[in-house]
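Two proteins, back to back. First:
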Amino acid sequence: MLHHLQFDYLKSVEIEEKINKIRWCTKLNRSLFLLTANDRTIKLWKIKEQKVKKVKQMDINPFVTSENSLLADKSFMSGQSEPSHANGTRLEWTDKMNGTLPSHLADITNVASRRCRRVYAHAHDFNINSISNNSDGETFLSGDDLRINVWNLEVRDQCFNIIDMKPNNMEDLTEVITSAEFHPFHCNLLAYSSSRGFIRLVDMRKSALCDHSVKILQDGGSRGPKTLFSEIITSISDMKYAMDGRHILSRDYMTLKLWDTHMDTSPVATYKIHEHLRPKLSKLYTNDAIFDKFDCCLNGDGLQFATGSYSNHLRIFSCGAENEDGITLEVRKSPNRKPTSQATTRPRRSSLSNLTRGFYRQGQDSSENEISCNLKSKLLHLAWHPTHNLIACSVGSSLFMYHA
């Protein structure tokens, strides 16, 4: 599955050949469908398992000369039989095969084939940060920093814009969209998070443009004097609906929060991820680590939550558990694989989330000896299996599976 290198000539922006988001669609018949997205383009892929016959590896009789072997091979490939021997017998494997391989000469293997069914493009002016399938099995949403669009899977050249946060003057921009997701079983509901730490609940039945007809979830306990760093760390990097449809899990830089959609004043639980870094926020800002975006996930029953941290740490928490610190596991790389080299400097890509705070400078290096964790080794992406206690963790170019 490929997203090729593209160039947006209107904005003079190069679109990298990478995949940022993957979502499975509703299974139809024996085929699987999934959506993939890079910064600007979404593709729908069809994956189907097919049975393929392959010729078995046969041992050649050492007493048969190479010329006879060549003749036998030509006879086998052409399907023509050789003349009979003097005694009237003929070789069994040189009989006419009617264009098919006999079972004793073929191995049947299952091969997954993929085909791009549709391409959804030219609908986003900014980088896509979210795609989510609707429970109706017919539509999906795509979101960037300022807009959320709803697509029909069968229509590739038209979408409906339901959220538009772009101001008339970009200097008035105060927040951007960071994540968006459909409700697990109500096709008319969705939620999206912002860089100000808000989660907005939307009912598409109220209006065609859902900018104002929303319910806002915000942490009232976090109110107080705002500083430069407090605004940055409250930005929600990821959010997930629980399977019950009532609870939402969100992740900002310092904490993991569980929300009840019936309570809009505060989260029902807050879990601290790396609180020991709070005194080091100025250093994390200097080397751009404070802008890292960590994913979060829930298990099938919504009672356990997981997220990542630095030093390749996996943090797992349980709802209602007495131990608020949860469980910490280190995701180790394979000892047989060499560690990937990482650059010492990492310039920060310009984005609207930085534009809202007035950040235009490049990242600079700072001494990490004063920070008690490895900032270059970080677990950003992870996913929980919907029905089994399996967690997939992505570290660098490696993928690890853990039984929770």
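And the second protein:
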Amino acid sequence: MGSDGQNWYLDLTYDQWTPLSVSGPRPAARYKHAAATVDGKLYIIGGSRNGRYLSDIQVFDLKSLSWSIIKLNSGVLPATSGHNMIKWENKLLFLAGHSKDVSDTVTVRFIDLQSYECGVIETFGKLPVARGGQSVTIFGSKLIMFGGEDRNRFLLNDVNVLDLETMTWSTVETTQTSPAPRFDHTAALHADRYLLILGGCSHSVFFNDIHVLDLETMEWSRPQLQGDLVSPRAGHAGVTLGDNWYIVGGGDNRSGVPETLVLNMSKLVVSVLATVKGRDPLASEGLSVSSALLDGEKFLVAFGGYNGKYNNEVYVMRPKPRDVLHPKILQSPAAEAAAASVRAAYALTKPEKLDLSEREDSNFKEVHVDNTQQKLSAEISALGLQKKALESSLADVQAENANLKAKIEEVNSTHADLSKELQSVQGQLISERSTCAKLEAQIAELQKMLGSMQSIEEEVQALRKEKSELERDMERAASVQKQGSGGAWKWITG
């Protein structure tokens, strides 16, 4: 699409990837780079192309749709691939990755977005072994790094945390079954508590599993996903918007994954959001996807990747706002307050043994009756509140049920249409099979005829040969007869 206006993104169709028409030169195509968006600009650092690591810093302006190159005022970035980049304060931090750097541990570098100065940040604590293909997720003022592959191609599944305020590394001890060692997976943070790990690969296996680490208990679990199937993949990219985790691309070294998935992290339900062609840049390994805030609305921005060729296209998607989860019954503030009132009223009206024979004072009896009426009034009032809360919750559930019913009817309608189409295709298939059977019978008959023709051809050749020999014999006989006749004539005429 073109750049006719500065607000071009407001014309995008929801949930569809759109390639951008870029003005001016583009960066070299690549994959396994690092990407981040800041103030409407997409920053791309490093990556790999034809086995060569890159070190350039490219910036794509989402307003003007043009690329530019950052020239550092100080410091040097080593050529790196398979690294991660996180925005922290006014800096871009990028760490780990494969390079020609001889460091045995993970190096953390920075680029100051104001001064364009670059350097290495000194870190402390238990520094993790150098690696590439790991995931790095920001959690408050901490970075959580999982897995990857070290320089000796040893696969990892450790969890390391970097405190950005003290720049101190620590290794996390987890319980339950950890994910199998892997690299080129993707990770996301949900509800400021749960770290989700999806996919990735070992040296021989591609994964489609999901693992969840509870960051409060440091306990791993492996829940089952619902909805659409997730095919095994590595080198895919992911970004979260609220409860939704958008997952793009990846592959298994044979083909790229054409589906863009959205995973609702609260419900653990997967849906296919969009599908591209097999050789599309979005069906690539080692691409990046980021979220960009443009005029208060969030967009997805994808770049690069490899699917038989290296890519440098920029794609954007305008995600449609997703449904917000309905609160469970008796978990809304009004319902909870009603329940509390009922509990309080019940506590006031617990059955007690009343011995009126010992209390002959009529005034006391009157007061006791009034008190009982007050208690009953409180109970009725509390029940009224509960009723209203339940009616409100019931209305929400009925609305959700109506929505689900409409979706079921739509699915049933689609199923009916597909069944009709299937029956039509089956009828066509039966007809085609009948035609094929007839053709096979004709072919068999023709083959028999062809065999007969070969036999006839041999007989014809034999007859031709006999004819040729007979003609030669007749010619010889005629010649001899002619010679004999001439001799007699000569003798007579003497």
